[in-house]
Amino acid sequence: MKKGGRLFYIGAGTSGRLGVLDASELPPTFGVPDTWVTGIIAGGDKALRHAVENAEDISEQGWLDLQTYHPTINDTVLGIAASGTTPYVVGAVRLARQNGLLTGCITSNPNTVLAQMVDYPIETIVGPEFVTGSSRMKSGTAQKMVLNMISTTLMIRLGRISGNRMVNMQLTNEKLVDRGTRMLQEMLGLSYDEARRRLLDAGSVENALND
């Protein structure tokens, strides 16, 4: 990504929704373009709210959906599938790897076909679900935690925080303006009013610190 590459999450159903969710939270939290990390779900945006029949069963469709973004060898594709067998996801990472992209996966079963297809498999073995077969429960929770760890670590490594402060957050509401103001107060020893003025003039905590 330091060379201009991007990260793509790809999944179906709950797994796809969690990828889209994690990706969508990065621009407001870390002030990055929404093109840096993208979530792709089988069936498209409609599938975020409504089940799209058979969308996950077409093995070539995941790679075809990825073509919309013109992937390059600097990009990374992370397949998300609790079962480790979803054709949409398996096909996408298989073709991504064949085309020279870095690949990884998150799955909740050991030794799956998905894990065998990627460079870096992540297996979160959570055991049987409370409701048999409902992977939105333990598997989904584990997936969300791993996605949080991946994206947060990535943003840290790319310099989007200072210490443990999200100094590049978008100032989209009064709560976040207040949070940024208090950060500047603490870091620079300013009054609240002066810190707020500097923050609003600069547009972000990081810019205010560098002014």
How are the secondary structure elements laid out?
Elements: E1 7-11, H1 13-30, E2 37-41, H2 61-66, E3 76-80, H3 87-98, E4 102-107, H4 113-117, E5 120-123, H5 138-157, H6 174-188, H7 192-202, H8 205-210
Helix pairs in contact: 1-5, 6-7
Q: In summary, what is this structure?
A:
The chain has 211 residues and is of the alpha/beta class. The protein is built from eight helices and five strands; from the N terminus they run βαβαβαβαβαααα.
What labels would you give this structure?
211 residues, alpha/beta, 5-stranded parallel β-sheet, 8 helices, 44% helix
Radius of gyration: 19 Å
Supply the number of helical segments: 8
Low-confidence stretches: none
Largest sheet: 5 strands, parallel
Determine the fraction of residues in helical runs and give it as a percent range: 40-55%
The helix/strand order is: EHEHEHEHEHHHH
- The average pLDDT is 93
- Beta-strand residue fraction: 5-15%
Tell how many strands the DSSP assignment holds. Answer: 5
Q: What is the spatial order of strands in the main beta sheet?
A: 2-1-3-4-5
Tell me, briefly, the overall form.
elongated
Q: What is the SS-derived class?
A: alpha/beta
Distance between the termini: 27 Å
